[in-house]
Recover the amino acids of this structure.
């Protein structure tokens, strides 16, 4: 089209911009950050329940901390923005948190692509970020190997995969294990992890199938799985599609053991009904079953603050809630160690935090390699199972005894 | 062989839903030469309102009846308020945008009040799958094509046998001439949208037990139903129904033998191809030339 | 004129506002704007570029695309992939980010040759959905749903392009520069023969074809330009966010882009910017509504469409026009008014005495129906040849064959001594065949003057690039075209209506305009299909004078008409058709006396014949 004149105009404007920068730019000296925890969560839209699950935990933890005098003499604040699950909005929110609100740290939400989209702006702003759900390996282990700012108190797919494979192997009678994943950044990202874990365990992956969000019928995938003789399915997906999968299995009269990554939450039991029985889910936590004393207290304070949480069944993403709770305490501890509200100091202090949380004992929480910018180690991962409509620890269920190894 | 039968059956039941939605589009298009572009949301109302009314204590069928009634009313209101004033002139596209606006309102207000998460709608027909020559299917899925057939026949009878139906056909054929013989074309159009709303809501109610009733259940299905209606040639009821069924089956076979991941890419490519071959839709040509 | 100046001033103010915005903080002493606000403005500017492109497609060419986000996304992914995987520089990757979507747009235009309206909409929807599906599932190439992250920061002339308030934000100004260029390009295209051809093709396809416009080429250009803008926006977007995945380019985005066009005022110059600002701004403001924000968005949308159905700018302009048009009554001039300078129109007559048209045994069948059956006729240069016959005799069909709208099933047509075989109407128009239509086919939403300018479409020599850059030749040609249009308006007495919408003219004036528009083609052969239908007696007298005057100046006229007085007054020769066959031919007097004509055409006696209205 109009290449040539466009160029000269461009050059002229570039010059103008550069000149302007030189003339006026008085660099705003890096100010001290504010005592707020920013967050970009899915507060509305189809994933709104995940935003809520995180909010209850973070507000409760901040409430506890402030009741005990805050951090460095100042109360913490939560500044949460909605990203409706869209990466572009998550980046907007990060900019807003880092530039406008000038918060000392930011927490992440449910989706892996949103976290991936944040890499560049976080680096550029020097804003520490703590993920509490999005489990994609590359969220923390950046392909360029230079992750500076992104921490995670959650699961990591590269570690989850061997964990799931081991669990599946223990339950598979014929040793035929298949993988079924959703067509999202999280699901697709899990494929190499699971493949690698299977190879390490020296079992071939008998079938690999994918499905799309909002798909209602999985018959085709399941028929292929059945024909491949799969008796145990490693599943990466969320409640709705999981319901549709067990529904399609029921239709075919095909009942493999499902060992799922933690996309499946409490909601699954409500929509799948009896078909949820016996489905195993990896997670970091569940608020159902027998709780330790401290967790009972946390739950009580959550319910006090949020009356809409009538029972643990209303905490639809139990692991996320627990991770977020621990993350706030880790951040508070790091701030104490840093001694001031300063992002770089906070980032450096993160590596010195030791803390006993409800999910795990973080000792230390992080180390200075990308791989260990994840706080929760596989040893703290748990297997949960749906039994009588509740998601309880496997060892508290009748399915726990069947375990042979 | 058993697998083929399975795909055929699930394909037909999925296709029946496309067909019902496409039929709703057909009814609206015939009367107004415009549609509620976000008809999927009216479909969604059928499922969601049934769940809500049931939770309020109504028995299943009464709840469904209520939901269908409300959706029909919504259809009429949408026509009167959002379509009619924006459907003047041959190339008007205003109705497309206003119905997108109203669809956004319906869907988002449902999400805000009912929640974003789907809820189950248990019916006795979902208790146990039945076996048909090795293929498994729920009775709930089996009744979908049956209801579709009944719906199509009833609609044809309605168009041929009743005064209202004939008036609707007259309006569809020539709005001005219908007005000249004393038919209130505007009222008829409104009734047509109500009828379409009822059809959509019935489909939503029937499918909710299989897929869960959620505020977003209508988005994809609604869009596909529209595409199906268009490639069939939207002015032909039987064609629309056939195309809906065929598309449902096609999707299943693509999933089965080509790719589940690329199902939509393949399906929509086929649609584009069909439109290039039949610019007025597969069954649409004859209808158009008559005018 | 004043509206145009107001427009340019508004644009200047806007450009200065955007350019000064980053420095606002130094003025008010606040930490505002931060990079966050700059980023929002940059995203809005990028969207505005895409919306400007879509406005050309929807507002000018009348083609509704519901898959524009896919072209936007294509640009973004081309830029991202080239810089990430192939190490292309910013400038190189941007060129391709424009070019590849533009080519894709041209491919998408192909269905518009066969498929119209809502059917075309469906194809664009399907295209968008296919695109997203491929992006999401082709994990190895596009990164799948996780997308492509960590794009290298773009540099230009060794300078990194930054968007950070504290350090450097030259990219902000680059986007602004592109936005201004896009506004310029929109203006340059809209107010040129290309823009007029697009609008003409949208408003009356037949009339456009009859005036020498190649509809397919016009639509292809419209699609390609629009896609090029989308690709430009996409490339800028990718280099701003340094992350792309399919979620920014879904069907919802396509809808949003279309809404921005409509909301601002489709086809208007300021509409895209205003529509984008309002809708993008609303999305940000509505976030405070929390879970009701989408609902608020819907309500806002409906409100705007209710209150301003033509969009913000469109409705405002219509209001102003209504106020202005009440101001003064306008006088209709006398016609035909053979003023100076009209010679150019009849300057190139066909060689006198030669046969302008030779139709040799033309047969035209529609399925089983034979509309024209073995008709031969010869029309001599500079003569007025009437084609008459009862309703359904095949007169208009014959006219449609001669002007290329129908392909003769059998037979040969020779025009200006040249055998034309299956030539498209626009080719014949370029050879010198102009026509009017039985039911006037004006470009009703264009002004009277613009209608005539479309008629002059084929006289331009300046190409697309010249037009876009407004080089001297463009200005020269545009000036002379306008002068000729004014002469023609004067000729048919419509000078004072020049800026009126053609659709608002009274019926008689519409006929005049249609003839003037046909003459703007400077035809050698003029085909008039029942030009007197619906005219008053006085107007018919004027029409006779006009036709005679044209023929006397060497133009050949073929006239299909029922009005007997007029035929007798104006025709040199007459061919009479009945049931698709020639039943008589010759001079007026000879045909009048032919008993077969009296029998077939007038039933009983010519004396009792009254003009038959069309």
């Amino acid at each position: 089209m109009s290449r040539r004149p466009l160029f000269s105009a461009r050059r002229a404007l570039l010059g103008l911009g550069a000149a302007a920068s030189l003339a006026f730019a008085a660099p705003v000296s890096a100010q001290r950050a504010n005592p707020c925890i920013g967050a970009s969560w899915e507060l509305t839209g189809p994933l709104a329940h995940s935003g809520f699950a995180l909010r209850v935990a973070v507000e409760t933890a901040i409430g506890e901390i402030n009741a005990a005098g805050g951090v460095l003499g100042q109360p913490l604040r939560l500044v949460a923005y909605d990203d409706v699950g869209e990466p572009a909005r998550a980046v907007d929110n990060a900019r807003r948190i880092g530039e406008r609100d000038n918060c000392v740290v930011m927490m992440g939400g449910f989706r892996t692509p949103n976290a991936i989209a944040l890499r560049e702006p976080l680096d550029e702003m020097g804003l520490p970020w703590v993920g509490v759900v999005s489990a994609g390996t590359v969220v923390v282990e950046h392909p360029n190997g230079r992750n500076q700012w992104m921490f995670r108190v959650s699961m990591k797919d590269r570690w989850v995969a061997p964990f799931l494979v081991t669990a599946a192997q223990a339950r598979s009678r014929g040793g035929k294990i298949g993988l079924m994943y959703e067509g999202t950044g999280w699901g697709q990202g899990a494929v190499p992890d699971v493949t690698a874990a299977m190879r390490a365990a020296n079992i071939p992956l008998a079938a690999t199938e994918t499905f799309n969000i909002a798909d209602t019928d999985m018959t085709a995938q399941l028929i292929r799985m059945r024909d491949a003789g799969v008796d145990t399915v490693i599943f990466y997906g969320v409640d709705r599609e999981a319901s549709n999968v067990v529904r399609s299995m029921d239709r075919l009269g095909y009942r493999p053991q499902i060992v799922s990554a933690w996309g499946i939450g409490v909601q699954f039991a409500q929509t799948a009904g009896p078909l949820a029985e016996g489905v195993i889910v990896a997670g970091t936590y569940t608020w159902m079953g027998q709780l330790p004393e401290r967790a009972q207290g946390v739950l009580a304070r959550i319910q006090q603050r949020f009356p809409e949480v009538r029972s643990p069944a209303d905490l639809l993403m139990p692991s996320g809630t627990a991770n977020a709770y621990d993350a706030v305490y880790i951040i508070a501890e790091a701030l104490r160690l840093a001694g001031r509200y300063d992002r770089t100091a906070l980032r450096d202090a993160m590596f010195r935090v030791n803390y006993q949380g409800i999910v795990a004992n973080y000792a230390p929480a992080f180390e200075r390699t990308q791989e260990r910018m994840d706080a929760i180690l596989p040893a703290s991962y748990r297997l949960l199972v749906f039994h009588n409509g509740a998601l309880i620890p496997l060892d508290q269920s009748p399915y726990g005894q069947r375990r042979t190894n | 062989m058993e697998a083929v039968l399975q795909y055929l059956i699930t394909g037909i039941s999925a296709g029946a839903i496309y067909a019902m939605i496409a039929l709703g589009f057909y009814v609206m298009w015939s009367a107004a030469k415009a549609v509620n572009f976000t008809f999927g949301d009216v479909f969604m109302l059928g499922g969601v309102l049934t769940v809500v009314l049931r939770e309020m204590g109504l028995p299943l069928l009464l709840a469904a009846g209520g939901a269908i009634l409300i959706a029909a009313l919504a259809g009429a209101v949408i026509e009167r308020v959002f379509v009619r004033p924006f459907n003047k002139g041959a190339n008007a596209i205003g109705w497309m945008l206003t119905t997108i606006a109203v669809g956004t309102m319906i869907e988002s207000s449902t999400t805000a009040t009912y929640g974003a998460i789907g809820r189950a709608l248990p019916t006795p027909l979902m208790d146990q799958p039945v076996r048909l020559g090795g293929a498994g299917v729920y009775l709930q899925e089996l009744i979908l094509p049956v209801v579709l057939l009944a719906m199509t026949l009833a609609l044809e009878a309605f168009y041929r046998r009743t005064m209202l139906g004939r008036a609707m056909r007259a309006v569809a054929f020539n709005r001005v001439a219908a007005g000249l013989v004393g038919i209130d074309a505007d009222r008829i159009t409104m009734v047509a949208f109500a009828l379409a709303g009822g059809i959509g809501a019935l489909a939503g109610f029937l499918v909710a037990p299989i897929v869960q009733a959620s505020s977003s259940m209508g988005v994809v299905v609604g869009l596909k139903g529209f595409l199906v209606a268009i490639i069939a040639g939207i002015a032909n009821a039987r064609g629309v129904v056939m195309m809906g069924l065929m598309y449902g089956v096609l999707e299943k076979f693509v999933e089965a033998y080509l790719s589940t991941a690329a199902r939509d890419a393949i399906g929509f490519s086929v649609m584009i191809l069909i439109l290039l071959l039949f610019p007025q839709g597969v069954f649409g040509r004859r209808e158009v030339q008559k005018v | 004129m004043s509206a145009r100046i107001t427009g340019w001033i508004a644009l200047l103010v806007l450009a200065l506002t955007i350019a000064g915005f980053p420095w606002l903080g130094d003025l008010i002493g606040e930490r505002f704007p931060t990079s966050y606000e700059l980023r929002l403005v940059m995203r809005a500017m990028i969207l505005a570029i895409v919306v400007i492109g879509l406005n050309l497609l929807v507002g000018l060419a009348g083609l509704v695309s519901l898959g524009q986000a896919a072209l936007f996304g294509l640009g973004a992914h081309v830029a991202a992939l080239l810089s990430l995987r192939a190490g292309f520089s910013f400038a190189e990757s941007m060129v391709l980010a424009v070019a590849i979507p533009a080519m894709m747009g041209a491919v998408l235009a192909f269905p518009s040759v066969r498929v119209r309206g809502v059917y075309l909409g469906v194809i664009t929807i399907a295209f968008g959905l296919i695109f997203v599906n491929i992006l999401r599932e082709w994990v190895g190439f596009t990164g799948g749903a996780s997308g492509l992250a960590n794009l290298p920061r773009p540099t230009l002339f060794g300078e990194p392009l930054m968007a950070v308030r504290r350090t450097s934000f030259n990219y902000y100004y680059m986007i602004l520069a592109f936005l201004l260029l896009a506004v310029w390009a929109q203006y340059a295209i809209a107010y040129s023969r290309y823009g007029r051809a697009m609008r003409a093709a949208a408003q009356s396809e037949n009339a456009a074809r009859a005036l020498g416009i190649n509809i397919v080429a016009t639509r292809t250009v419209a699609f390609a330009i629009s896609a090029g803008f989308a690709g430009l926006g996409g490339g800028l977007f990718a280099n701003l966010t340094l992350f792309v995945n399919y979620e920014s380019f879904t069907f919802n985005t396509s809808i949003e882009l279309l809404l921005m066009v409509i909301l601002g005022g489709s086809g208007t110059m300021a509409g895209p910017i205003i529509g984008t600002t309002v809708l993008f701004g609303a999305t940000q403001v509505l976030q405070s509504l929390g879970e009701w924000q989408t609902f608020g968005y819907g309500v806002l949308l409906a409100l705007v469409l209710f209150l301003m159905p033509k969009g913000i700018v469109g409705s405002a302009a219509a209001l102003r026009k209504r106020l202005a048009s009440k101001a003064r009554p306008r006088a209709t001039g006398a016609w035909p008014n053979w003023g100076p300078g009209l010679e150019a129109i009849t300057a190139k007559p066909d060689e006198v005495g030669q046969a302008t048209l030779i139709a040799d045994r033309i047969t035209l069948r529609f399925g089983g129906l034979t509309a024209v059956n073995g008709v031969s006729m010869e029309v001599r240069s500079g003569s007025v040849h009437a084609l008459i016959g009862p309703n359904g005799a095949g007169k208009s069909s014959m006219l449609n064959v001669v002007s290329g709208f129908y392909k003769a099933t059998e037979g040969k047509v020779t025009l200006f001594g040249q055998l034309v075989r299956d030539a498209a109407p626009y080719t014949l128009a370029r050879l010198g065949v102009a026509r009017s239509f039985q039911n006037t086919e004006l470009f009703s939403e264009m002004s009277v003057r613009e209608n005539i300018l479309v008629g002059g479409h084929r006289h331009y020599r300046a190409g697309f690039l010249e037009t876009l850059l407004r080089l001297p030749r463009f200005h020269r040609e545009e000036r002379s075209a306008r002068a000729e249009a004014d002469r023609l308006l004067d000729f048919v007495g419509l000078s004072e209506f020049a800026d009126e919408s053609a659709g608002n003219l009274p019926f008689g004036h519409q006929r005049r305009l249609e003839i003037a528009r046909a003459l703007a083609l400077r035809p050698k052969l003029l085909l008039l299909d029942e030009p007197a239908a619906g005219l008053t007696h006085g107007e018919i007298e004027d029409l006779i004078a006009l036709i005679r005057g044209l023929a006397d100046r060497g133009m050949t006229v073929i006239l299909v008409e029922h009005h007997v007085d007029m035929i007798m007054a104006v025709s040199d020769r007459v061919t009479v058709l009945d049931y698709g066959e020639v039943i008589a031919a010759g001079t007026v007097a000879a045909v009048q006396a032919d008993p077969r004509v009296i029998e077939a055409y007038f039933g009983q006696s010519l004396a009792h014949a009254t003009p038959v209205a069309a």
